[in-house]
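pasting input
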Amino acid sequence: MVNNKRIVLIGAGNVATHMGLGLQKAGWEITQVYSRTVESASELAARLEVPFVTSLEEVCTDADVYLVMVKDAALQELIPTVVKGREQALFVHTAGSMSMDVWKGMAQRYGVLYPMQTFSKQRTVDFASVSFFVEANGAEELDVLQTMASSLSPKVYEATSAQRTYLHMAAVFACNFANHMYTLSAYLLEKQGLPFDAMLPLIDETARKVHTLCPAEAQTGPAVRKDANVMNKHLEMLAEEPELKEIYKIISKSICHSGQNEV
Amino acid sequence: MVNNKRIVLIGAGNVATHMGLGLQKAGWEITQVYSRTVESASELAARLEVPFVTSLEEVCTDADVYLVMVKDAALQELIPTVVKGREQALFVHTAGSMSMDVWKGMAQRYGVLYPMQTFSKQRTVDFASVSFFVEANGAEELDVLQTMASSLSPKVYEATSAQRTYLHMAAVFACNFANHMYTLSAYLLEKQGLPFDAMLPLIDETARKVHTLCPAEAQTGPAVRKDANVMNKHLEMLAEEPELKEIYKIISKSICHSGQNEV
């Protein structure tokens, strides 16, 4: 199979930007970009050197694949309009937490292409290290999605909608919530005029460790040592930060519980 | 100055193990290991090929530096016995959250040598990328600690006890709590028979991102997008995990608030 499908990007956010650039680089023909706002539609269209539209009715009707990459809340709303008049095409979304069945009864050929990665516009993505999870409503459709994903990364897996939902929730913990711990750390340091950069070796080693140890084994710090002195001192230091104090308490408690489970 | 001090290690946990091995490799003479339990004392002593004792009274009295690396809760208790009969030596602890003043009125020459890193016995530590924070009660003492730290890493900084306490608390968030997010992620995946390995590229990229973006800018996921659909779905999936559900809620709320602060 060759990368001979004509693809329209519906959406121009972080995921659409990186997927669009990646697919184009891999030889796929991106024919058009749609976004609600001129600003983001034109920005991505310029980077890809393709036309853009800001109304779904203007989206071309002759593409092979409509790759929908919008906020989950917008996806369901948008589906009937996207599919209408384009019934022969393959419809694909990239949302970790949305079932493939959002297409059911709407489109005839459909699927999901979920790149499990954190995309920021300012960062180049190394697609080769991104895991892709694909699902489709037919063998031919699955084949197209596998070809698309394989053109970006060697790590392509089939996953059902139920499995993907759990993968996505697990990613929220391992990525989004871990990053927020960095944010809180940076906030606490900044208040004292201390540089966040000092944390980077620690952050790197924390990430590296779980390549060889399971995360529960890799756990260090006052909570896993049940060092009440230190934890109480930290809670006192957070006296004027009720939200951070609550987060400190509940995560420390959860670390203690995880420790107990292992024994 | 040369690495000509004779050092006794008080403690044989993760920090003592890595510091002992690192200092010995850097040319310092480790003369003895103390730990309460024969098991851990003998294990570290064997790795260093030095004698060990399990009673503080038996610790030799003629070393230059007593490097105390025990649980914070044990430190204060242990100080009078360690110092007694060894008043001319330099006394040092490695605890991020303990003030240098724990030595005050006990020892005459003292300080703190805080390696900001997560130490697991099973992992080799790359000391060159560890930040060390030093503090001492005199210029000569500070000089010894700076020489010791510099023999392990180029990243040696002076920090007051107050600053170090904040550095340590910030490290609890950026390292210990981030790692617990990995643990919860692994737990959720395991329950579904899904491999934690799939998360590693995501964990790596999340850590890499904050080298070039500040963590708040790097934030992605449903909470920062204020995607209530996804968050509610995840909370439903966590219905039988009250602790995880609570953690999910409070961190998502905190991410939303951080977003608001930036606007």
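fyi The CA atoms of residues 72 and 95 of chain A lie 7 Å apart.
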